[in-house]
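Quick check before the chapter quiz. The format below is the same one you will see on the exam, so make sure you can read both the input and the output lines.
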Amino acid sequence: MDVLEVDAMSSPAVRFGQELARLRRSRGWSQVALAKRMGYSNTLVSYVERAKRPPTMNFAVKADQVFETGGTFYELWRRHTKASLLEGFPEFADGEARCRRLRGFALTIVNGLFQVQEYAEALAYAAVQRGAITQSEAEQRVEFMLARQRVLDRRKPPLVHVALDEDCLVRRIGGRAVMLKQLDRIVELAARPNITIQVAPFSLGENLPFTMPVTLLDLPDGSVVGYAESHARGYLERRREIVSGWEREYDQLVVEALPKAASLALIHKARRELTP
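Here is the expected output.
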């Protein structure tokens, strides 16, 4: 096998492949033998070991199962995936996974934690068509989003409050069938005791306090951080004076948004308008 002359620390894909090959050899397995145990082709195993193809989340999870590594490959996959994410987002995602409370405002696009796979794929693959990202990066973004959603199913999940701009309900992402599934998912999540969803209606007009998506995270150490995202980058805000201002604006948004029952009624209305 070719010796990789790439700095493994600067290339998580190379690090993943080297660790896979090291453990395989330590057990005396060929690539064919490992492929059979994992349920993949030996060609794919070879490509991943040589960093010719990026590992998927499912591949990483299966590798941890086969080698009984308790999450080592999953963590390496996460590091690799972060390379394809918006600047600033990986740091936010780490906080999101640990948070005790999450407050978010979604503008135009449904919050990532709430997205169904088909909705996320439609967004990612549209970016591929525009030439903004590669096919591989699109797949990694979707897989990472699905992995993030595990925070909602923790044994002790965080308290979640999300305000959706009304545009999130009517902007048809992925077509009618995908939007129907997405709206059903929002209704399902709204029924959970730890999740509150409100809709910021179009009638708020210029009183909408945010012009970009914003998320506030209450972390285990008692601190609160904010995350805002533009088209080009994301930014994690730790300065208390800035975050406090965002919290005040978010509280105002909650007051101005529709109550829970009225928000749910508007979501059902959007769904009916999509039903043939």
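If your answer matched, good. The first strand starts at residue 101 and ends at 106.
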